[in-house]
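look at this:
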Amino acid sequence: MTTDWNPLLRNQFDEPYWSDLMTFVQHERSQHEVYPPQPEVFAALHLTSFAGTRVVILGQDPYHGPRQAHGLCFSVRHGVPKPPSLRNIHQELSDDVDVYIPRHGSLERWASNGVLLLNTTLTVRAGQAASHQGKGWERFTDRVIEVVANKPSPVVFILWGASARKKRNMIDTDRHIVIESAHPSPLSAHNGFFGSRPFSRSNEALSQAGLQPIDWTL
């Protein structure tokens, strides 16, 4: 990890859990297809610097379908059909801030503009959701959340769904802004995700803190 995250996270690489986690993932890759590809596991931390992080969106697992996962939560590569949750995110984005929705499903532009798109588990076995949960990734990504939550300047944390909302107690809400709602999955989007206006609310909070708002254009 050659970004400004390195000095903040490298102590994790000496922890016993990290060695166990890497051994597990290596064994999984030797026996099964694992997503995302190895070079993209830490894409969120490479594309969004610590210093530039103004918004954090938390996902859970990477997508477990072929060619979908590329290291950014909710995002898929150009040319890959949009999963249902992403289509709902695009719909809310259009309704909230009137952004033109492209045909592609890549959120890389957000990542390069200060939005950390972090899954709490960074790998998954093909076709098996949650297969790499509880193996150590959560300890690492909790540390990422803690590091961001220690920033002196305000950060907006967008927490969609029950799993992400459990992280609220890690965030100092006197200093940072937390925006919560139902998950954008078709199973829950109509129960509080649609109409939650996370994008405009994020920018309002950043502007009030004297920080540059996010350009949500894709």
User: Anything to note?
Assistant: The beta strands are 34-35, 55-59, 115-119, 124-125, 156-160, 177-181. The first strand starts at residue 34 and ends at 35. DSSP finds eight helices and six strands in the chain. The CA atoms of residues 124 and 132 lie 5 Å apart.
